[in-house]
What does this fold into?
Amino acid sequence: MAVQERRRVLVRRYSLFERIIHWVVAVTFVYLMLSGLALFWPPFFWLAQVLGGPTLVRMMHPIVGIAFIVALLVMLAMWAKDMVLDRLDIAWLKAAPKYATGQEEGVPESGRFNAGQKLLFYLQIIAGVLLLLSGVILWFPMQFSAGLRQASFIVHDLFAIIAIGALILHVYMGLFYIRGSLQGMVEGVVSRAWARAHHGRWYRQVEGTSAIITEEAHD
Amino acid sequence: MAFEPTAIKAVSASVTPAPGVKKLPEVVKLIDVSSCIGCKACEVACQEWNDLPANVNRPFFGSYQTLPDLDWNFWQLIKFNEVQRDGRFIWTLTKYQCMHCGDPGCLRACPAPGAIVQYANGIVDFVQENCIGCGFCITGCPFDVPRLSPSTGKVYKCTLCSDRVGAGLEPACVKACPTKCLSFGAKDQMLAQANYRVEQLRAIGYDKAAVYNPSGVGGTHAVYVLPYGDSPEIYGLPKNPTVSFVDVWKGGLRWLGNLVIFGGILGAILHYLRFGPRRVPSEEPVSGDNG
It folds into this structure.
């Protein structure tokens, strides 16, 4: 049997720096989520044991939180330009139910990020900032008034819940539903077909630039 | 822990029932503010019995009060409140410490299993070996009592001398009190004594005298007789302490969290089963030897 040879066209989607920042945000978020859940609801308390014991978790949660927020702000700076909502994004949002149910027709082409990704991004930024502000108050409970602490608990828990809900959606989309996405965030490249199908406007922008990589593939 | 597990009525952050089966009589420390002379013998007895080194090197802050506030190593304090009432100055000398609530906000706020326990006799105790130092109890407490030690990272408060009570003794503060401002005993007995004292105070002109045993926290096991019972805030006591914030925090928010987390995961699974993964078909024309 002859060896099948074909050309594979890839599109560079995320730089190494972007991927590192993304995974720093991801890993710190997961730690914060697991350690936070341990302190949020007793049935999750065993997570604190897994993470090195509850006293350590209580010490580390705010410190990892600082690392998370720093990485998140770098992410905001590096993606702010690509995350601006435009007119076509509004049309995309109107067609979002179609997108979510796998229909192709009537869904406007997206730029580098689609409107759903953009909203998710803003949601996480807002949640991150509110979690930071309330978290600092809860970090040093003896330094702040009872009213401020009570408000902080509500804000911290509420926005943690929102952020975790958004994470579930993000992981589901990136890992399970939209196949081929994970490769972009791990290897930095996606297939040309993927780029055209999911981010058509972005593909046309990078078409003909050095972002397009053609390689010989052996199957 | 000063009592055996069979006396534990409630445990913090426990998903299973508390092990308590014993029926102990509920105890109350009665504080008759009208007969406090501000001698601070109770403060000294507390420090001495509990071997607590108080930080006495704080600057003078213009009061007879020993320290401005409770601290991790200072579990009870006579507050020398200077207030105006009916156009005259009064000094409401008020012993302040943990109230040992019937429905303790600290215990419900605590995320560490077994770090806060409530005994069948009503005493609420902190178990420092299980404490993780998060300070949630400080926010859960409607009386602002628990204090976090910066050196150990644990919280501390009045134990109602649970070790002494467990051995059949009264709390150290009660033993030291020279005016019988403090009494300790079975709850119904103490409440009867409190009501009797209120009647006495009313008879001599304190027509607003009342017992302070707030129902918003399920009653307390430190009960006051207040000569001006209509305004507990002049004694530094909250008028209507409640644990309603803890209800929202540990009730509503928890269920919202469960709904989002488990609902989200379930929703994702159902979506996947119905709409499957979205794969982009490979568009590349196959070139070269096609076999």
User: Anything to note?
Assistant: The mean pLDDT of chain A is 93.
